[in-house]
Predict the 3D structure of the following.
Amino acid sequence: MTPEFTPLYCANHPKVESGLRCKNCGKPICAKCAVLTPTGYSCKECLRSLTKRFETAQWYDYILGPATAFLLSSLTSLLITLISTFSFLIIWIVIVALSSSIAAGTAEILRFITRKRRSKRLFTITIIFFILGALLVLAFNLLNWTALAFQAIYLLVGTPIVYYRLSGIHMSK
Ligand SMILES: [Zn+2]
Ligand SMILES: [Zn+2]
């Protein structure tokens, strides 16, 4: 017994044969209409309504999120400035290693504070304040090259981590 093969046609392009189905509504979609999501292919309509459902941020999240991001990142930067007074090679390594953990921790605290509510605008504003918090401390350290270098590393390593963690996209490896 071989399963009968009936060709599927894209719901939007009736002439285009397709082997893909939307994982949400199950309708056949062609490669042009399919959007690859972490959990499979989705049609654009489903993706749009899903994104909307995920926009759950409240107005106060736009204050809490950025304020916390600003505070945490300026505190971390202050700490980095203090550590940078011991300018040994090992500290460089520690800073690089810690940057990612601290950034991940910051993101978790932010997620906790906003109770995992989300919206793209919230993440963007939060990230801007995260960078501003570090820049504020950085401005006081313009003559301290080691501190500047550490800050730069922290921002370079930390910013993408905080953003991706917040938006729920987990970088593989
Ligand atoms: Zn769909
Ligand atoms: Zn199509």
In short: Residues 55-167 form one domain.
